[in-house]
Write a structure and sequence with these properties.
The complex is a heterodimer of chains A (196) and B (177).
Chain A: E1 5-8, H1 10-18, H2 25-39, E2 42-46, H3 47-64, H4 72-98, E3 102-105, H5 111-124, E4 128-134, E5 140-149, H6 153-164, E6 169-172, E7 190-193
Parallel strand pairs in A: 1-2, 1-6, 2-3, 6-7
Antiparallel strand pairs in A: 4-5
Helix pairs in contact in A: 1-2, 1-3, 3-4, 5-6
Chain B: H1 12-16, H2 45-59, H3 79-121, H4 123-138, H5 150-154, H6 168-176
The chains are: A alpha/beta (196), B mainly alpha (177).
């Protein structure tokens, strides 16, 4: 029997390494990994996912550091922490790849074809416009603002990579992928958007 | 003013090639005795020459224009036949366009399927190759064998940087720009 392939979006990995408490997302991911192990499925990780997760690690560590002073020593200290966590992440991921539990993939399509497909999907998706009444801090705005919500080009490229490698499912917490569901390009692939 | 200008000599070569002597020169005149005189303006000899050549050219009778057989113009135009033929050809062009478009989309679909199959078939080859690239780029080497399940090693790797407000979706969006 051919192992099922599942593509995990960056939000799943970020949630897992941060043990995200919001809506019990970390628990959802834990259950997902259990299921994958039990079914002996293969996890697909793209270079795009890897780079996004590494960038989140870099930003999160830097921005979580309590402010004391900013000099060369402080910069060195923060960079050292980033380097340590990055290295641990890459080592663990490399083991998973070597054990063939995770496959590290990238599109084999020529760049012009790749962008052609991305454009074609992007252009055919118009997104939605809504209003929001609060500032990021939670304070109410005097006048509401319009907000554009639609599929981003990164979402499309994640989905295209997953599709190219015959992923049966794409798991994510990101609602942006909703628009790609049912798109003819992704016929046969399920978008499992965890609404938690 | 009259100037003397040498004319062409009627010489032995002309005789051999049976060229007639120019008018005014009697045959039998010895070669070298063909000096003639032409009346020309001293100031504008070139104008005189051009005018003379032009006069000669104008006096040359024009060739008869081509006789055109205009009988085709009088033939009745088969408009209905032509229209029908045009319609039929247009129909053929349309059918060719449609079949071309169908074939093009079939080729594209097959190409895509082939690329997908190749990528799917070579999954581990691609992955192993990408791992080598990653190790080389990052300088991280993973020797075979391990102390801990790597999936467990990843769990909570950034725990100390997490809190109640963490939103993985927003964090990822922040790096997607």
């Amino acid at each position: 029997m051919v192992a099922k392939r599942v593509y995990l979006d960056s939000s799943i990995w970020v949630s897992y390494i941060l043990q995200e408490k919001r809506n019990n997302r970390a628990q959802t991911v834990q259950q997902l990994f259990h299921q994958i192990e039990e079914d002996e499925d293969v996890i697909l990780v793209s270079h795009l996912v890897l780079l996004e997760v590494l960038e989140v690690i870099r930003k999160r560590i830097t921005e979580s550091e309590p402010y004391t002073d900013l000099d060369d020593n402080k910069k060195k200290e923060i960079k050292g922490k980033v380097q340590k966590k990055t290295s641990l992440f890459l080592k663990a991921l490399s083991h998973l790849i070597r054990e063939h539990r995770v496959a590290l993939i990238d599109s084999q399509k020529p760049v012009d074809q790749w962008f052609g497909m991305t454009y074609s999907i992007f252009i055919s998706s118009s997104g939605d416009i809504s209003t929001h009444n609060h500032y990021p801090g939670g304070r109410r705005r005097a006048l509401p603002k319009y907000r554009y919500r639609g599929v981003g080009h990164y979402d499309i490229q994640h989905a295209l990579t997953a599709q190219e490698f015959s992923a049966r499912d794409l798991h994510t917490f990101d609602q942006g992928f909703v628009e790609l569901e049912g798109h003819q390009e992704f016929e046969g692939m399920k978008f499992l958007i965890q609404v938690v | 003013m009259v100037i003397l200008q040498p004319a062409k000599k009627w010489d032995a070569q002309d005789q051999r090639e049976q060229r007639a002597p120019p008018p005014g020169i009697e045959s039998g005149q010895s070669p070298g005795e063909t000096w003639g005189k032409r009346e020309m303006s001293v100031r504008y000899p070139l104008n005189e020459i051009v005018a003379e050549i032009t006069r000669d050219w104008l006096s040359t009778p024009e060739p008869m224009p081509w006789r055109i057989n205009r009988s085709i113009e009088n033939a009745p135009l088969p408009v209905s036949v032509l229209s029908r033929e045009i319609d039929e050809l247009r129909q053929i062009v349309q059918e060719l366009k449609e079949s071309n478009s169908v074939l093009q989309s079939r080729v594209s679909a097959l190409e895509e399927k082939l690329a997908k199959e190749m990528a799917a078939d070579n999954l581990w080859e691609i992955s192993d190759n990408n791992l080598l690239i990653l190790e080389e780029a990052s300088g991280i080497v993973t020797p075979p064998g391990r102390k801990q399940d790597p999936l467990d090693a990843l769990k909570g790797l950034l725990m100390e940087y997490s809190d109640e407000t963490v939103d993985s979706v927003e964090l990822v969006r922040s790096v997607r720009g």
